[in-house]
């Protein structure tokens, strides 16, 4: 066999192996767009959030405060109340219980104005994104929203081999997402909802 034939055979073999590998990767995980969602999750307060505390008929007790890195807040008459990992409604009921020692029948409303959420509820993007980072989850967020937030893909990204790792119902599952088709081909069917705590992994292209 001539040198040219050997080189041609090697190139052919590499193409076949690459095709097989890509095919295996594409079918390794179910596509995310086939996964149905069951309702919208309630927002969970996290460190770095800002919360407005409104106590009915008690303006001196109403104020806006940040959630500290330890997950707690401090307001007049209430010190070090745990706020992280609670919904706004849960925090309001907890504050009513504490304030009832000082105020008769307190009515508290909690409004979140700055959003970060708990770390395990943020969307984390790793790998070949232009700006890998953790971003806050927003209701009705999709893969496209996540990619806009991280600045898209790098030139070395294997977008159609990307996957999302999701923890739900006590188990961890992994789903394929077709980022190249979505971002480069405009295939809107490749867009899909994301959930709090999703991890988007974008591998590097082999070639």
UniProtKB/TrEMBL annotation:
<dbReference type="InterPro" id="IPR049712">
    <property type="entry name" value="Poly_export"/>
</dbReference>
<dbReference type="InterPro" id="IPR017477">
    <property type="entry name" value="PEP-CTERM_polysacc_export"/>
</dbReference>
<dbReference type="GO" id="GO:0015159">
    <property type="term" value="F:polysaccharide transmembrane transporter activity"/>
</dbReference>
<protein>
    <submittedName>
        <fullName>Polysaccharide export outer membrane protein</fullName>
    </submittedName>
</protein>
<feature type="domain" description="Soluble ligand binding">
    <location>
        <begin position="123"/>
        <end position="172"/>
    </location>
</feature>
<keyword id="KW-0732">Signal</keyword>
<feature type="domain" description="Polysaccharide export protein N-terminal">
    <location>
        <begin position="40"/>
        <end position="113"/>
    </location>
</feature>
<dbReference type="InterPro" id="IPR003715">
    <property type="entry name" value="Poly_export_N"/>
</dbReference>
<dbReference type="Pfam" id="PF10531">
    <property type="entry name" value="SLBB"/>
</dbReference>
<feature type="signal peptide">
    <location>
        <begin position="1"/>
        <end position="28"/>
    </location>
</feature>
<dbReference type="Pfam" id="PF02563">
    <property type="entry name" value="Poly_export"/>
</dbReference>
<dbReference type="InterPro" id="IPR019554">
    <property type="entry name" value="Soluble_ligand-bd"/>
</dbReference>
